[in-house]
Amino acid sequence: MQSALLLGAMASSGSAEALRVGVIGTGCIGIEHLQNLHLLPHARVTAIADPHPASLSRATECLSSLGDLDGVAVLSDYEELIALPQVDALILCTPNDHHALALPAIVASGKHCLVEKPLCTSVGDCARVAALVEQGRARGALYWCGMEYRYIPSIARLVREASEGGIGELRMLSIREHRFPFLQKVGHWNRYNARSGGTLVEKCCHFFDLMRLILRSEPYRIMATGGQDVNFLDEEHDGRPADTLDNAYVLVEFTSGARACLELCMFAEASKHQEELSLVGTRGKMEAFSPSHGTKTDDESEVNFRRCLRNPAFTSGAWDRTEPPSPEECGTIYEAHEAVDRALLEAGNHAGATYVELSRFVHAAQHGLPAEVSVADGALAALMGIAAQRSVQTGNAVLWSDIMAEYEAAAK
After folding, report:
1. Is-contact 196 190, C-beta < 8 A?
2. Cα separation, 412 vs 128, whole angstroms
3. What is the dihedral of CA 122, 125, 128, 133, to 10 degrees?
4. Global pTM?
5. 277: Cβ–Cβ under 8 A, 6 or more apart, which residues?
6. Within a 10 A sphere around the Cβ of 230, how many other Cβ atoms?
7. CA distance 33 to 38
8. Euclidean distance between CA atoms 335 and 308, whole angstroms
9. Sign of CA dihedral 48, 363, 366, 138
């Protein structure tokens, strides 16, 4: 996509030397970061670390194929990588429950860091890490929570246009993700709530982040229902059955009066779109669609963004018609395709979004700018997922004020 390439040019402009990056964790998302860092002229991978030999081997093969392996330190110990003088910034791509263990050492190093979502898996860990990071930020380090979905081109356009007010006061946001089951991970950590935080934390913190970002409001109450109905029903590891949700509905009421609904299904890979967003305001609606993570070609004839404006005659609140309006009367519909450059599709599984986010992270680190996605943003998205998991488990609505009271107490 042209916008992503322009962002890359922006990130590489000026006289700043290349940011020297160490990647901790070289599983699927770690490899995606390596491939996208290769495309950024003002970033250079200088070290990688992973305790799992097969993952580390795949990462070295990736760097070798890109011509980027020379001079790269290849380590099994992430603490050794953090201490390396040839590393300016770290990308943390380890399993969810490891973030709270690694981040104290990262903050102590004074180095910049992008930590992949979710920030942490518990209220207490989110609170402690956020407080620790705030101290490091005051010393000049950049901390960024990876939320790639903000930067998927069609979704990014919806976010931007929503903030411009063209569809009026925002009232309803629906997010649907219909996708494939969880991929296999080292140690099967994503099969268990205890390590992942639960599906609504691990997978859906992306969507809770988008809810806060788009609606520009904080939650009031969270209600959810879900289950493990299809995936991994007969799967056991070390005598423990897999317990991760594979489908859910989550309803979030916001203090602004807006409502948001998440629909998740993880046995629906036979879908045209992996993500579908529908945002409705008082003067119209917008929709954004994203392809499956496995998509490597971009069909420019495919509509992935739509803006529908109501007939101004219908927006006053009065409705005295006795017959439904014809389609021609309803308003205007604009459709577009937000393109993704083929090189960016080949470099990852998020429709070019990882490249865009990394380019902005690198630019911010080099120029002393604040994070677009703060650790506080990451904490709040994870907390919404934790609240949703609790609602599924108890069958009761969860008040955001209760979650925040627990969070604030843990931060002390």
Report:
1. yes
2. 8
3. -110
4. 0.95
5. 155, 158, 173, 174, 175, 176, 210, 286, 287, 288, 289
6. 13
7. 8
8. 9
9. negative
DSSP 8-state code for residue 70? T
In this structure, what token pair is assigned to residue 161? Answer: 């246009």
The C-alpha atoms of residue 175 and residue 250 are separated, in whole angstroms, by 10
Q: Which two tokens stand for residue 92?
A: 């943390």
Q: Give the tens place of pLDDT for each residue, 261-301.
A: 999 999 999 999 999 999 999 999 999 999 888 888 999 99
For residue 170, CA distances in Å to 124, 174, 257, 373 come to 32, 12, 9, 22
Distance CA 159, CA 223 (A): 24
* CB 400 within 8 Å of CB 252: no
Which residues are bridge partners to 265 per DSSP? 178, 247
pLDDT tens digits for range 102-136: 999 999 999 999 999 999 999 999 999 999 999 88
